[in-house]
Write a structure and sequence with these properties.
Blueprint lengths: L5 E5 L5 H10 L3 E5 L10 E4 L4 H10 L3 H10 L2 E4 L1 H6 E5 L9 E6 L9 E6 L3 H7 L4 E6 L3 E5 L3 E7 L2 E7 L2 E4 L10 H8 L2
Parallel strand pairs: 1-2, 1-3, 3-4, 4-12, 5-6
Antiparallel strand pairs: 6-9, 7-8, 10-11, 11-12
The chain binds glutamine (GLN).
Glutamine binds next to helix 4.
Length: 195
Amino acid sequence: MGAAKRAGVLALQGDFEAHGTALERAGAAAVPVRTASDLNSLDGLVIPGGESTAMLRIMKDEGLMEPLARFGREHPIFGTCAGAILLASQVSNPAQDSLGLVDIAIERNAYGRQLDSRVVRLAPEEEFLRRMGQGELETVFIRAPIIRRLGPGAHVFLRYNGDPVLVSQGRHLIATFHPELTADDRIHRLFVEGL
Ligand code: GLN
């Protein structure tokens, strides 16, 4: 067997530790990323959930915007919830800067106040089941965004109320929920297999 793929986890704010554990379960070596030089020799990166405004401010303060954008032009990035917002090309409610690596429009906190947090079981699309194994996915939504527009070439693996919630585009993967909070490894394996 070859050496394990090295997957970084942006560890500035939010839910990064659980992603490290999930990546290791999926067979990758998880590496915390706090500076631009931490990106050296990684095969891919996870940008976790948390608070995208706070993460964005730290990314700017630490001079990470350009290094992350450059990394993402050559390597896969998996953005979950706030991470999805930071990858999107267009952000609303309210508008804010982003890395613009994935051609989607995304609306923050789009389920409104009444849906601060919800756990739902969803049936994945056929392609996901064929590649990653059968069975519904348990999904945890926490003050989640909704993808309002998908650019060309996007691939939908899972929907909730008709809206795409797990999507790949080009080399990147986006989830509007928190796959690191359940014991099901399939989504992290999908990402690790693409590294
Ligand atoms: N509501 C957060 C934001 O807009 C995202 C929430 C999350 O990552 N769970 O940044």
